[in-house]
Amino acid sequence: MTRGKLIIAAIVAALGFVAAAQAADPVKIRIGWVVLPGELQPVLFAKAGIAKNNGKTYVMEPVRFQGSPPTVTALAAGELEIAPLAFSTVAIAIQNAGLTDVRIISDEFKDGVEGYHSNPFMVRKNGPIQKVADLKGRIVATNAVGAAVDIASRAMLKKHGLEPPRDYTIVEASFPNMKAMLLEKKVELIPAVPPFAFDPGLLAEARTLFTQKEAVGTTQMVIWAARAGWLQKNRAAVVDFMEDATRAVRWYLDPANHGEAVKILSDAMKMPPERLNDWVLTKKDFHRDPDMRPDLRALQANLDLQYELGFMKSKLEISQYADLSIIEEAVKRIK
């Protein structure tokens, strides 16, 4: 073999080694989540055999956050690959954080779809609040400023002429602590998201003042978003991930799997299964698209309302920040 042929052979071998090394190194996909069972990320692949590509072309790592706004910071800092952005947080990401390369890739769940759950905002049954206007001069709770339930609460109060901090005070609290804060009279209004909205102790002492649907209409509550450059670089692995994720969502939604799905969630949440069985993953729960396709029309309406209420700097055309080709390709693979 001539010297030239030896050099070419060495280059080919080196390229083959690099390709093999890359093939053996799955793409890390860190994906945020806030609360079970609204977000299934921590248990998404708990059913054996669903995630056919996990550990091969990608590795999924769920990362916990208190609300969706902090996931924007993590996405901007490269500490997350996929962020669950509430409808309110999409605008924060694009306009405030400057993430103009953010791309919506899938649905997570929707609030207020006809026949499905909508988050209640609750007050004490024996308390002083009989109508929204009665919240003037009071303290209301939110999980995180700028989160979806925070925007819904502000929107409803604004409709009744109330503006923070002029007319009421907002305090942040984690969802598990809100029941105690309301019943101990530390606040007068709380957002109650599943599973806390179905707590028998809360329902015995509190009532719904208004729902999120009444405040802002049907909402594309949470979407999954990633940055365009990362999607382009890792498209094949992301399609593999979305194929597995869609398969998992369909499995959870199948009534035939309800008992097993409840057991998985019960174990993960350390909650008795009877607290979940009657509502989780049913029409009493949030709406989830079995193809994980987001409702961009609803999301556009949500953003337009935020702009009208003064929560956004300018209008956004959300279709410019969506790439649904990945989920469309993933769905085609599932028989």
What does this protein structure show overall?
The chain is α/β, with parallel strands linked by helices. The chain has two domains: 3-111 and 219-333, Periplasmic binding protein-like II (D-Maltodextrin-Binding Protein, domain 2, 3-Layer(aba) Sandwich), CATH 3.40.190; 120-216, D-Maltodextrin-Binding Protein, domain 2 (3-Layer(aba) Sandwich). 39% of the residues lie in helices and 17% in strands. The strands form four sheets. The chain has a three-stranded antiparallel β-sheet. Helix 9 (235-253) crosses helix 12 (325-333).
Low-confidence stretches: 17-22
Number of domains: 2
Distance between the termini: 51 Å
Q: Give the CATH H-level superfamily of the largest domain.
A: Periplasmic binding protein-like II
Shape: globular
Put simply, the count of helices is 12
What name is given to the CATH topology of the largest domain? D-Maltodextrin-Binding Protein, domain 2
Structural class: alpha/beta
Specify Rg, calculated over alpha carbons: 22 Å
* Main beta-sheet strand count, sense and barrel state: 3 strands, antiparallel
What is the CATH class designation of the largest domain?
Alpha Beta
- What's the helix-strand series? HEEHEHEEEHEHEHEHEHHHHH
- What's the rounded overall pLDDT mean? 92
- Percent helix among the residues? 25-40%
Strand sequence of the main sheet, in spatial order?
3-10-4
Percent strand equals 15-25%
Number of strands: 10
CATH second-level architecture of the largest domain? 3-Layer(aba) Sandwich
